[in-house]
Each structure stands twice: as C-alpha cells, then as structure tokens.
Specification:
- The protein has 2 domains: about 10-35 and about 270-360, Alpha-Beta Complex (Aspartate Aminotransferase, domain 1), CATH 3.90.1150.10; about 55-270, Type I PLP-dependent aspartate aminotransferase-like (Major domain) (Aspartate Aminotransferase, domain 2, 3-Layer(aba) Sandwich).
- It has a 7-stranded mixed beta sheet with strand order 2-8-7-6-5-3-4, sandwiched between helices. A 4-stranded antiparallel beta sheet has the order 9-10-13-12. Strands 1-11 form a two-stranded parallel ribbon.
- The N and C termini lie far apart (about 55 Å).
- Helix 5 (about 120-130) links the parallel strand 3 (about 110-115) and strand 4.
- By secondary structure, the protein is an alpha/beta fold.
- The protein contains 13 helices and 13 strands.
- About 40% of the residues are buried.
Length: about 375
C-alpha cells in the first residue's frame, strides 16, 4: 500500500482552512484594519538610509534590546515589569499556547477561553498546540456575558483567558467592572489573563494602569495598528518573572534587524503616527454618524479603527461594494451574533467617502 507524504500531517490540520487574505489588487483596501497613511517622501528617504546601513549579514543582537527599551518607554511599562517581542501578536499568542501546554491533574489538555465572536487566532493557537478551546458567546449587543464567563472559568479551569480590549470584530470596549471580576475569578483558580490591546491607539482607555493590581495579567500590543502592519512587531508586557518564563519558548532571533530598525524609526517619529491615529479617530466618528443615516444600516459603537455594521444582506452588500472597487470584510458567517454584519476599516477621508457611496449603492 502506497503512502503519501501528506499522511504524516495531522488529520485536524488537513481538515483546516489556511488563513485567507483577500486579493485587494486595484481596490480601496478597507478589510484588514490597516493604517491607511503612508510616510512622507522625506521620512521614506530617512528610513531608507537607515535600513541601508543595517548589518544584515549579522544575526539580530543589541538592536532588538534597544527596541525593547524604546517600546517600554513608549508604552509606559511599570517598574518591575518585563517586555517580550513577537513577530506580530500572532506569534505571541502561539508562544503562550506552547508555554501553557500543561495537562491538568486528570491528564486532560489545558484550556484556552475567550469570548466569541473574537480574534480567530486564540482558537487556532489552541488547536495547533493540541489544547482545548472554550468560546463564550457575547450578549446580543456584544457585551461580555459576565455570568457565562464566570461559569465557564469555574467549569473549565482555563490556563489562559483572552480579553481583547477593544474587541475584534465588534470594536467595542467592555465594562471595566465586569472585566475586573473576570480577572479576579481567573486569578483565584490560578490561571493567566491576557488583555489584547491591538487597537489601543484608537481607544479612550487602556488596562495598563490597572494591571499592576494583579500578578497573573499580561498585556499584548502591536505596532501593526500603530502604522507598521508590514513590519510585524508585537509585544507583551507583564511581571518580569512571568514574562521571563514565557520568553524561554521564543525562537532565537525572531525579530529581524530590518523590522527592529523600522520600529525604532517609527518610535522616534511617534508624533507623526499619533497625528495619523487622531485623524483616524475623527474619521471613525464621522463614519459612525454617516452610516447611521443610511437606510437599513446599523453601525455599532467602536473604539478601534474599524466599524461593525449590520445591513439587510451582508453578502449582497459585500459583493456590490467589491464590484464598486471597495474591499471590506464580510464577517456574517463567523458567528451567529454577526448575522448580516460587515466589518469596515476606517480609511482616509476620500476612501471613506468611496466606501459610503459603494455601500449605499447596494442597499
């Protein structure tokens, strides 16, 4: 009997679908929560000069340590806290699953728990590492279901609870008191809480100031929404001893010298990116008002650089907008709570007007 090389691949992986990236050629690309602004010609030239002098013949070394220090200062990391770098937040999520892959006393795999709908990588990282994943549905208005979350923590004793703040794809910040009760419940049963602040540049609040109350809370951020999606830099903050343990599973040299230099350059020009974030927040608020005026469209409150909207027919609107040259994300089949929902990235003023016109033409 002949065997195929693919027979060596786990069956659950063979049954999976790879992460899909939509073809955006020739489109107004508003599907991936990217910063729509590019660097000025002068800053492009300055960055090019810096990258040209990087020693790409050497493995990354002290420059990544420089980046860790610069990010700690930029974020205002508390004393006694460590900072770990990842190749985007995705790698950090995978490394957390690997580090916490510790079976329970009953021999069952560890569990990762998160509200749903939420970021797909929480569940995917669990599956790839052979862990269990428990998703707890949000309420109909996309708030945390506190009683359901607390019951799930008690029942499943998760190694990690993820709380995205703001959440993706719903864009909202959850109630602080509810979060605190979930954090305390998870701490009482000896698990970790990871607050994912990928969209922090656009939010009115952060958990950073409160995390020092707990020794089991980690906070993740990324430079992707800051304006460097192509650079792939994520970072995680937490008590130094805890971060040091998780850092042991990080591959050596996971951040390239070119990516580190790009990030250091961006942090040196943080004021430029802060102005971009300010513009995106203003455009988001204007979009929320304009979307609410469209017949049959329900936009949901957002503290991110995206807006979730419910339309009469998500598939028809998605396809119609695509024909009009505007690419958004159809999330209507991701979860039952997202029925007929589209996720719209906030773009430049011109892109947003084109998006509104394209959506209106499909209604």
């Amino acid at each position: 009997m002949a065997f195929l090389a693919s027979d060596r691949i786990r069956q659950d992986i063979q049954s999976m679908h790879a992460y899909a990236v939509q073809d955006a050629s020739g489109m107004v690309k508003l599907d991936a929560m990217e910063n729509p602004y590019t660097l000025s010609a002068a800053l492009q030239a300055e960055l090019g000069s810096r990258l040209g002098s990087v020693a790409i013949n050497r493995y990354p070394g002290d420059r990544t340590n420089d980046l860790r220090r610069a990010l700690a200062q930029h974020a205002g990391v508390p004393d006694g806290y460590g900072l770990m770098l990842g190749n985007g937040s995705d790698e950090l999520i995978s490394l957390l699953a690997m580090a916490c892959d510790k079976p329970g006393a009953d021999g069952k795999p560890a569990t990762i728990l998160a509200p749903l709908p939420g970021f797909v990588m929480y569940a995917m990282s669990a599956q790839l590492q052979g862990l269990d994943f428990v998703g707890v549905p949000l309420t109909a208005d996309f708030e945390l279901d506190e009683s359901a979350m607390l019951a799930a923590i008690a029942a499943h004793n998760p190694a990690i609870v993820y709380l995205a703040y703001p959440n993706n794809p719903t864009g909202n910040l959850w109630d602080d008191a509810t979060i605190e009760r979930i954090v305390e419940a998870q701490g009482q049963q000896g698990g970790l809480v990871v607050i994912d602040e990928a969209y922090q540049p656009f939010a009115s609040r952060s958990y950073l100031e409160r995390m020092t109350r707990h020794d089991h809370v980690l906070l993740m951020r990324t430079l992707s929404k800051f304006g460097l999606a192509g650079v792939r830099i994520g970072y995680m903050v937490g008590p130094a001893a805890l971060v040091a343990e998780i850092d042991k599973v990080r591959p050596p040299y996971n951040i390239s010298v070119l990516n580190a230099e790009c990030a250091l350059f961006a942090l040196a020009h943080a004021d430029v990116f802060a102005l971009q974030a300010q513009s995106i927040r203003a455009e988001r608020d204007a979009l929320l008002r304009d979307l609410a005026a469209l017949p049959g469209v329900t936009p949901f409150p957002s503290q991110a650089n995206m807006i979730l909207v419910r339309v009469p027919d998500a598939q028809a609107s998605f396809e119609g907008m695509k024909r009009a040259g505007v690419l958004v994300k159809n999330v209507s089949k991701m979860h039952a709570l997202l029925h007929n929902c589209l996720r719209l990235t906030v773009g430049t003023p011109d892109e947003n007007q084109r998006m509104l016109a394209a959506l209106q033409s499909t209604l």
